Amino acid sequence: MFRNMKVGSRLALGFILVLGFMAAIIGVGLRQAQVSQETLERIVDINRGRVQLAHDMIDDARETAIAVRDILLATHTTPSSERLQEMRDRLAELRRTYAGSAATIKKTVAEDDSKGLDLFNKLEASGVAARQLQDQVIEWAVAGKHAEAVDLMNGRAYPALKQWISETDDFIQHNKERAALHYNQVVESAHLARTIMFIFGAAAVALSVVIVTFLTLGITRPLAQSVRAADRIASGDLTLDLSAREKRGDEVGALIQSFSQMVAALRDAANQADVISRGNYSADFAPRSDKDVLGIALQRMTRALRDNRDHVQRQDWLKTGIARLNQVMSGDPDPHRPGLQGDLRTHHLP
Length: 350
Known about the structure:
The chain is an all-alpha fold. Helix content is 81%, strand content 0%. The protein has 2 domains: 2-214, Four Helix Bundle (Hemerythrin (Met), subunit A) (Up-down Bundle); 279-345, no CATH class. The chain has helices at residues 7-74, 81-108, 114-142, 146-234, 251-277, 293-330, 340-345. The radius of gyration is 57 Å and the shape is rod-shaped.
């Protein structure tokens, strides 16, 4: 197949293959860059934001404990209803802020992160339990059960708050570990991409070398054969056979075919010259075209030699006839010599 491809087609095919490898390398690089960018965005934007919101939730949980403590202390001095309501509004605001952060975090936890979802559900359950105890403390403090409220605050509410914060810390630590895992995956993917790009690059270089070698040998080898054939022709050797090399369908094959036709033409010319050298001028030489200078010259030479031979033969006939006529007129002493009439009849013009 490649023997019949034009040189330009071979070069185009080689460039297409090399460009294909280069495009594959670029595609792998771009794809890996996109994956790395997406992973880094998840680490920076999502994981980092989730961790920051979890820290805010811890701050809100501590602030709710402080707000409950302030309400508990305020009930000992019989505060005004407006002041008490202000404290309760402050507590409600902290809880709403906490709830908003928790809702945002829940949306950002990946579905495949089962451990993260489990930790988040645990801290939510701890938050609900801690808030219920805080509400019970406030209810008893407002009802005047200060001792019971203090015992509940110290005995159960604070430990529940610590459990709440501890489980939130566990959730934060898990997200940090997950972020580190994603980062390591990005690094491994980058290393893998570099390895793949190196392999593709090495393959592209190797392919380029193979293509260049193949194209070079496919062109220079038959050209070298053509040069050797031309040298043999120049030295007068017309015995070489180029028919086996004419089967190529490319430009080199066309060149070899032209050489073969030239050798055939030179052989015909040499054969015609050999025939002429033997004195045979009857065979006419047909030029290959109206621009066949050698063929036209051989044709003219053959016709000129043939015409010259005929002219010489006529001259010899005339000379012989005149000589015999002179002998007859002068009296030939040989009685057996044929006469002029018989002698002339034996000589015919060519």
